[in-house]
Amino acid sequence: MDVLLAGATGFTGSRVLDLLLENGHRVACLVRPWSDAEAIEKLDVAVVRGSLEEAPVLADALRGRDALVSAGPLTPATANGIVGAAGASCVARIVVIGTTSIFTNLNAASKTRKTEAESTIRDSGLDYTLLRPTMIYGTHEDRNMCRLVRYLSTHTFMPVFGSGKHLQQPVHVEDLARAVVLALENPVSIGKAYDVAGGEAVTYSEVIDTTARLLGRRVVRVHLPLGLSLALVRLYRKVAPNPQIHAEQVLRLNEDKAFSTEEIERDLGYDAVGFEEGMRREIEEIRSWDLARRSRT
Prior knowledge:
Blueprint lengths: L1 E5 L4 H12 L3 E6 L6 H4 L4 E4 L5 H8 L4 E4 L5 H14 L3 E5 L11 H14 L4 E7 L2 E2 L7 H8 L4 E5 L5 E2 L2 E2 H13 L6 E5 L5 E2 H12 L4 E5 L1 H14 L7 H7 L8 H7 L6 H22 L1
Parallel strand pairs: 1-2, 1-4, 2-3, 4-5, 5-6, 6-11, 7-10, 8-13
Antiparallel strand pairs: 9-12
Helix pairs in contact: 1-7, 3-4, 4-5, 8-12
């Protein structure tokens, strides 16, 4: 297939690009004007400068191609750009990445925006496949488990906001990338939305304990009541110059985020690693990356 890939410089998109090329697809990459595309330019792919929000630019880049794969964030603006450009270029096949966070019970503004974006894709009349990953992890580049690994590597205690008993089901980035390519290559996925999760659900306390054990660290979990946790986070956000935690994150940790992958397994043969194996791979990758970085300095 001749594929236009958006988001190829990102955490997930770079893995999708590798798999598309490995599977013999012809690929062009839509890259924002200010993004560093040096790594992509070394590969046998064309680079088009633009964004999903720019429907005319996107339409020009799509003409003559078979499909669009979007590995970047799905927002109302990007969804509208995708639908408009696909219609103008007569490219009907699209694979886009959404998020399972639309299923949160919280009355969050982000939920409304993400649900609107997904509805735009599903109501478009295009040959879409929508993939909804859970929290994505897998290397030193992720914004989730990498932070936990760094913290537990240097601290002997871990604050837990709430009971720590709610379920998490992170998906390894390599599994998500494989799901994207499987969906693109299998027509059975057309018109479907799949939840894409890791191989097992674990509690947040198990996330901490497993990571600490794999690091060879003894870490004590310090549980804080949810009400106190929210008060402390709000105070922290008032005094910290660059706060990294907000109240919605704390509340999200206190609701279950476990999802069935039965449908994508049945349709596409999807198979995901369990959390312990995924974290073992991540820790090895982080250590290798740190060693390589030190050797360069």
